[in-house]
Every structure is written in structure tokens, then in C-alpha cells.
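JOB MANIFEST
job_type = single_chain_structure
chain_count = 1
residues = 494
[input]
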Amino acid sequence: MCQRRAHQYSGVHNPDHNKIKGIIVSKASGATQNTLYIVVISCIATIGGFLFGFDSGVINGTVDGLRTAFDSDSIGTGFNVASMLLGCAVGAFFAGRLADLRGRRSIMRVAAVLFIISAWGSGIAGGSLEFVVYRILGGLAVGAASVLAPAYISEVTPAHFRGTLATVQQIAIISGLFLAFFSNYLIADAAGSSMNELWLGFEAWRWMFWMELIPATIFLLALFFIPESPRYLVLQRQHEKAIEVLTRLSGADAARRKADEIDASLAKDHHNPRMADLLDPKTGRVRRLVWVGIGLATFQQLVGINVVFYYGAVLWQSVGFTESDALLINIVSGGLSIAAVIAALVLVDRIGRKPILWIGSIGMAITLALVTYAFTNASTAADGSLSLEGIYGPLALVAANVYVMFFNFSWGPVMWVMLGEMFPNQIRGTGLAVSGLAQWGSNFGITITFPIMLASVGLAGAYGFYTVCAVISIFFVARMVHETKGLELEEMQG
């Protein structure tokens, strides 16, 4: 799939660097890389990932408030929670396509505006329908940010540390989740419950949503200080603008050469990207690489990670923890997740993407099996509530948190790294659109079905299904995924 071409780029793997005022000079390649500048603009792009995480995690502490405020049943509550994901699927699909037409930066600005509208509107909503509309708008923003941030980072970052900077996206996502959990805990603690009034006569759960206004506004303002992707500019035949950006990224000597390399990678198909590009011109069938992208995106959700993210508080309350304890567990889980992503950041450009995915699949399969075993031994009280007695409570708690660590070490960051870099230049936006649609579509399916599975087959049945999916993902990685470590984006084939 992704093979190194006959020509090799010197200095990709082991560059000899001298640091001069934030500029890194690579003696091996003769290129000058403004590493500090690259890191800064990449971090600005990852604010979208932070909002992705915050918007996904904030719902965790508001479930009881939504159920009470809107008087909804389990299915209605499940749809209120999962409604954002409908917007995510649409946002991810169209953002990739629109980014090829209007630019990565422009569409990220639109996403930032939608984050602001959604955060405000979700808090003022007076009924389920109004709430769902605002959450779908937020979903459009999350979906757009989820595909554009890794794509943008990949397109402005050199190959030898592209995986590291792309992994920062997952740190931002988990940091957003963590701060959402922490914010929810502090707000609920101050009010006594998420359903109690806090400030200005508004319930605490509404203020949980409004906290997102701060980072969303920062994201919008910061986006006016980053350049457009040079690969998008070349795609749009804006060669001189591309050279200008590449000069700021890599120095004048390397800029024109890199622009020519990007242009050469598009030589066979140099036209505005279209869905037909996803078909193999020789066979007329969907490219194998596209199926790999869809598989990576889908399996990331089929292992059930967002059940923990969205329903964590409800999950732990269902087995006997108080609301306060459940929210505190989420904070601990968020901290462990950040540590796991940092480990991935250190290793992704050293050992590669595929080994990390494989390790993560095995770890998730084992820990999910342990969680399933623990819930199989849960007892049901007269009021229908569950309790885990003896060793089973600690087993479920520890195994679930280790599972989250394995996910955030592997499939959490590496899936987005690979989707941002594995597609050739001509089909990157379109490939991301289709893969993003698959990711958020499966996310919606898993999220909306969890309350139904909880009521029908119970926690043991639900986690048993996620365990099977984790086992299948082991074989998917072994058979279908090919390594992209150290390859320039212009070397990607498929």
C-alpha cells in the first residue's frame, strides 16, 4: 500500500540538527526547518481537538440533568446524548470535501464559530428538540475538527516528527475530556448536584456547557494567525503562495523543491478532488487503502470507548458509586489517559504506528474481557440497581481504567495519525471525508444502542460485544494495516 519510492529523502530518519533561535538546521538534508513555528501552528490546530474532547466529555456529567429537565426516557436520553454524533458524521464528511475546495484553515474557522453557537445554545435549551439542534451544530464542528486538525498537522510537518505532532492532537482531545470531567465535577460539587441551581438561577448542567465558550473563542481568534496548508495551495495551483508558506516552514532552499515534489505527486490526477478519485482507475473498484481507512475508523469505535466517555458517570452509579464518586473516577481516568497518550507521543515515530495499534488491540481485548467477567457476577437489587460485591467491583474499576489507557496509547491517537497521513495528496481530503463519516457513524451506533443494550442484555452483554470487536481488530491490524513511519506525504501510494 504505502511503499517507499526509488528515490529517498536524505535526513528523514536521523537528521543532524543545530538549534539556532528556534530554527533547526538539518545538515543531512541541507534544509532549514523552523521547528518552533511548526510546533506553534500545529498546537493551534489541536485546539480543535481540545474542543472535540471537551464537547464529547461535557455530556457525561449532564445526563441526569437532561433526563430531569426534559423528562425523557432511556431512549430519549440516549438520543439526546448521541444527537451530536449525527452532526459529527455529516461534519466529518463534508469538512474533508470542503477543505479541498475552500482550504483547511477556512473550514476550521467555520467549525470554531459552530462550537461557540453550540456551547451557548445547549445551555439555554428549553426542550429536547432545541437541545438536539444545538448539539447537532456542535457535532458538525467536532466532525470537522476531527478530520481537519490531523490533516493540517500532517501537511505542515516533516516526516521525521510528523507522528509525534499528530499525536499531540490526541493529547488535546484527552485534555479536553479531562477538563470537561474536572469542570463538571467542580460545578456539580458547588451546586450539590448537576440538577440544582448554581449561578443566575440556571441549573448546574447548563453551566457545564457554557464553560466551553472560553476555549472555543480562543480557537477562533488563534486561527487567524496560522497559514494555509501548502499542499492545499499547490492543489489549487497557488504555487507562489505555497512556496511562501513552505519557506516559513522549511527555509527558502527547500521550499521550491518541496513545492515541486508536491506538484509531481499530483501530476497524474491534477484536478479538483472528487469522490471518483477513491476508485482504482485500473479496476474501477474502491481502493484498498480506502477500505483500510474505513476499517481503522470503525474499529476505533466498535471497541466501545465512547460508552466510557459519554456514560461513565451513569455506568459507575449503576454499580453503586455516588454521583460525586463517579465524576471523580472520570477525572482519574482522564489523567491516566493523558499519561498513555504521552507514551504514544514518545514512541510513535520510534517503533511505528502498526506495532502500537497491535499492542493496543491485545490490551483492550484482555481488559474488556475482565470487565465483562466482573459484570457477569453483578447482583441485582429489588429496585433494579446493580452492585459489584467482593473483588468484582475493584476488578471492574481497575480493568476499565487500564482499558482506557490502552486505547489512548494506541487506537485513540494512532488512528487519527494514520488517517491524516496515509492517503496520497490527491485523495487526502476525500479519503478523510469517507473515513470520518464511518468513524462518527459507528460512534453514533455504539452510543445510541448502549442504553438499549443495558436494558436488554445488561452490562456484561454490552461489554462482551466490545470484547469480540477488540479481538477482531487484532487480526485487522495484522492483515490490513501497513506502516507509514518515516514516509513523506508525497511517498504515500494506494
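[summary]
The longest strand covers residues 17-20.
The domain at 17-491 is CATH 1.20.1250.20 (Growth Hormone; Chain: A;).
exit_status = 0
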